[in-house]
Amino acid sequence: MGDFNMPLVDWDLYSGPDTPMYSAFLHFINNYGLHQYVDKSTRGDNILDIVLSSSVSLINDMQVTAPFSTNDHNSVIFNVNVSGDDGNTSSCNLDPFYDYACANIDGLSFYRATANAYARSCCLSVRPSNACTVTKQNNLLTKFLYHIIDPFI
Q: Would the pTM of this model clear 0.70, i.e. be above it?
């Protein structure tokens, strides 16, 4: 959150001029899957004050209001969702961020060598004799992928 002073960013397309400063800034935003919430101008016709998050469900009730005191920027007011529906912060379900650049490649390689047995035990087969439905196979494949991603990524 803050005044990033990047008036030429098109926040609808997450793009901007092809300059080193804008390219580095937008590369960071896009590579880390950040969402920018402010959709109204905060100074003149520009969105300079932005709120970034890797979770689309973290920020709510975003408002751009009149400037505070003698400030030349509009105020940005929002709520941060830090608790689940039951009020328990441990039940907060934020979107996970996986940093693939820091993956444990050695662990993945070892796991790949032993994964065939796990895949077979999870009914991951395309043979017609297999009694699994497409939906069940899809659910099992998703579970299998997270079984790989969670410990190594």
A: no
